[in-house]
Fold this protein.
Amino acid sequence: MSTTAPAPLTAADFGSDQDVRWCPGCGDYSILAQMKKVMPQLGISRENIVFVSGSGCSSRFPYYMNTYGMHSIHGRAPAIATGLKSVRPDLQVWVITGDGDGLSIGGNHFLHCIRRNVDLRVIMFNNRIYGLTKGQYSPTSPLGKVTKSTPFGAIDNPLNPLSVAIGCEATFVARSIDVNIKHLGEVLKRAAEHKGTAFVEIYQNCNIFNDGAWDYATDKATKADTVIELENGKPLIFGKNKDKGIRLNGTEPEIVELGKGITADDLLFHNEKSPEPTLAYLLSRMRHPEFPEPIGVFRDVDAPKYDVELNRQIESARAKKGEGDLNALFNSGETWTVA
């Protein structure tokens, strides 16, 4: 028998033999590449990793990962993943979804997955449009957005995915951007290491049906003033010259300039470990153009996990009553024979 240790896995080992069928220039390629780079760092075998998706462009993801996976039902990926994780707690399970798949038909499953704190990683590709069905408005499309399904402009108030997640008291909430590859890789790794539901929103560009939706956050000329990177325990400072910051005026955030009687100590300090979600929620409400939009980890706390508690209850029942017997159950009490 050989005693040679297996060679470490590489990003290439996590790429499947399937042709990637996204539009040229789609932001999904970047997300896929960073996911492949993160996987070897986790020290988990491919046989113990599962990607579950719903419907939409993002949901082709499981085909392109050389792991187990399932392209499931529109909006139902969190429910299917919850069942899988509950019966196979040894697996690392990822849910891949989009703003349409996860927040419209899948909104109910999304909410309950988060409130239960199932040990899953939920990655939402947010491009503010329905890409696979050719350009209808989505739950995150801004007011007034003209699309094939809103020719006079969208009149629905858009959802803010992070605010929804934090409102459900998600234990891990983060945001990154498809083209900010170093940051994206770091956020995905943090999500992988979290125990409980880790929710990551990724600003992803659909260059066919909603090109430029996130230009303000990716353009080199503007992003220093429109994006603020969160660092735990550090003040909220931004700007090309790092001369601007966010402080609280009562309960309201405001932008201030440093150096005019204002120092970093006067600013709002980020605390991703706070058990109270109020600060994380406030940060999730900071939106362009009034404020720079935060990226990074908003919240990372511990809480009871649904799958762990479920299996604990099962083990307790077995210890008290022994293994179950379905045949005995079906034939207990009164029975009827239907001719």
In short: Residues 235-269 form one domain. The radius of gyration is 22 Å. The chain has two domains: 11-227+271-308, 235-269. The CA atoms of residues 226 and 288 lie 7 Å apart.
